[in-house]
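Dear colleagues,

For the upcoming journal club I promised to circulate an example of a predicted protein-ligand complex. I picked one with pyridoxal-5'-phosphate because it came up in last month's discussion. The inputs are reproduced below in full, followed by the predicted structure.
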Amino acid sequence: MEELYQEFIIELYKNPLNFGKIERPEMHAQLHNTTCGDQIELFVRVNEGKIEQAKFIGKGCAISQASASLFTSYLKGKKINELEKITKDDVLGLLKIDLSKNPSRMKCALLVFDTMKKMIKTKE
Amino acid sequence: MSLDVDKIRKDFPILQAEINGKPLAYLDSAATSQKPLVVIERIFDFYARHNANVARGLHKLSEQATLEYAEVRTKVKEFIGAENQKEVIFTRGTTESINLAMRGWGEKFVKKGDKIVVSIMEHHSNFVPWQELARRKRAKLEVIDIDENGELNLSDAQKKIKAAKIVAISGASNVLGTVNDLRAIGKMAHEQDALFVVDGAQLIPSRKIDVRKIDCDMLAFSGHKMLGPFGSGILYGKEETLEKMDPLMYGSEMIREVTIHKSTYAELPERLETGTPEVSAVLGLGTAIDYLNKIGMKNIEKYEQELIKYTMMRLSEIKGLKILGPYNENKRVSLASFTLEGVHPHDLAAILDEQGIAVRSGHHCAMPLHARLGVDASTRASFYLYNTKEEADKLVDGIEKAKKIFS
Ligand SMILES: Cc1ncc(COP(=O)(O)O)c(C=O)c1O
């Protein structure tokens, strides 16, 4: 549990990566974790079927926000038709923490992933 | 000290537990209280030696269960100062009680254009049913505001309650801790001939309440927040009010006679209690009330006030920590919700949990209130008769630790 708050998580919470909006994004979605109020809004710029840029804005706990920072970096360069293949474990792998015994924190960590899922759906 | 907390703690098996290798500091009694061994044993004893359905068989076990079940009704009646047993309806909790009031009374008497009044500090359970009733009936929902101390704004209340049909207010807020001036609100409501409903979920566990003094028409509360089991709840109502109400559900237990053409219903209180009740939960609640009475509600109130006063004093030493609600301990039950600059409530709760300290974080089922306060979420520490000042100190140390991790 102590590892939950490794320095890099705290650092990303205080200084998130890819934080901000993209004007007129090709793909976009917003999601809210209603139990804790965490929010993520995801913006994606697509060029020739590839993600050129991914950004987010949001608020919430360190886990949800750090996860969004890492995930938006991870998305860059991915092909749009590959997005479907990304799994929860890929996202959890980015955070390098074991949340299997913390179902409520798992939700925080996966908020950005769920936002992406919603984004794909809206696009279709 | 107004009560012997060391002795009390020994009555609660779970308080000897360790969480993450640390002794448990349970500061989440506003969500649900812990249960003393006598309550747990009562439930065990019922199932092991006395299990039978109530109000059915003529056999000995059923007769005894029926009698003991009825005895709890008397205990509840005395605990809240009701006039008679018919005024005590068993439900499964506060939420069900309020829904019974909404469906049984509201659906029947509220008409298009009527005014239903709640406050901004209500728990969703005393907000959503009324909002839904207003929607169904095309009635108007009015929301009483709070002042900067987190107390009900009484002049706003006076305005909003004008020509109201129903006024539904919590006895104490589960976020701000504010103890509301029920007599004042009740008076305003009755001047308008409105039905006055009190959500007592947070008040009944820690105060001696007399429904006749408050003069409420209905009072809802949950057994599980007052040392009793889950699944035990109460809707108190004045007899004349309950008489006019419809049941929430139809079927067994609430029946006098059924023919293929028509059914006639039982008298109060059974008419409003449909189906086999949660017998063991009700019996456990009876034991919980005995336990509270033995300690004494006045002593509990006094002890809790010492605790919350101390806790607020310690919390206010922490830089960047902001307590929601009134500062004066006389105006609150023993809980404190707060925000901490730079640390999200979820992270704070997780770090406290690591140290064996159980608190609640989030919006505590009070989203309109959090929106009003302009905070997304808060952390809440709530205390009960078994908590100690040492646990408040642990909380403060834990918060300092979280601050360090996030600094
Ligand atoms: C003020 C208030 N009202 C209503 C409720 C709902 O109680 P229950 O969940 O037992 O129905 C609660 C408990 O969370 C509460 O604190």
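Two points we might discuss: The longest helix of chain B spans residues 60-80. The radius of gyration of chain B is 22 Å.

See you all on Thursday,
B. R.
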